[in-house]
Structures are given as structure tokens and as C-alpha cells.
Hints:
By secondary structure, this protein is an all-alpha fold. It has one domain. Helix content is about 70%, strand content about 0%. The protein contains three helices and no strands. The protein has helices at about 5-20, 30-60, 70-75. Helix 1 runs antiparallel to helix 2. The longest helix has 29 residues, at about 30-60. The chain starts with a helix and ends with a helix.
Amino acid sequence: MDDTEIVRRIDELVEEEHRLERSHIDEPMSTSDQERLQSVEEQLDQCWDLLRRRRARRSAGGDPDDVETRPVDTVERYRQ
């Protein structure tokens, strides 16, 4: 996946996130929608992480295609 594809995926996920949030402005979110929203947020974090690491690799003179998507557990818990 190149940077353009990653940005496109980020845009798709952001749109889905907003759609889910808008659809529940006046009502509680179902369990399945809560789970989907969490999944979307995790995928967004993975995409942003991948994009930042690809850009860093490129800036350092390396090949950004050597960077792989990290597991959700790694991306979500890097601050803990």
C-alpha cells in the first residue's frame, strides 16, 4: 500500500466514523455500532501510524515499502 492508498483509506474510515457518530446523536449507540466504531478508530490509528513511519523512513533515506502495518495492540498501547 502506498501513501496515496493509505490516505484514501484514512478518508474512508473518517467518513465511516463520522457517519456512525452522526447516526446516534439523539439515541444510544448499539453494541454492534460501538464495536464497529472502536474497530474503525483502531484502523485509523494503524493507518496514521503506518503513514508516519513510512514518511519517517523516506526522510531518513530508507525504503518506505519496508514498513509494515503494526498490530492494533502495538499501536494502541504505545503510550502505556
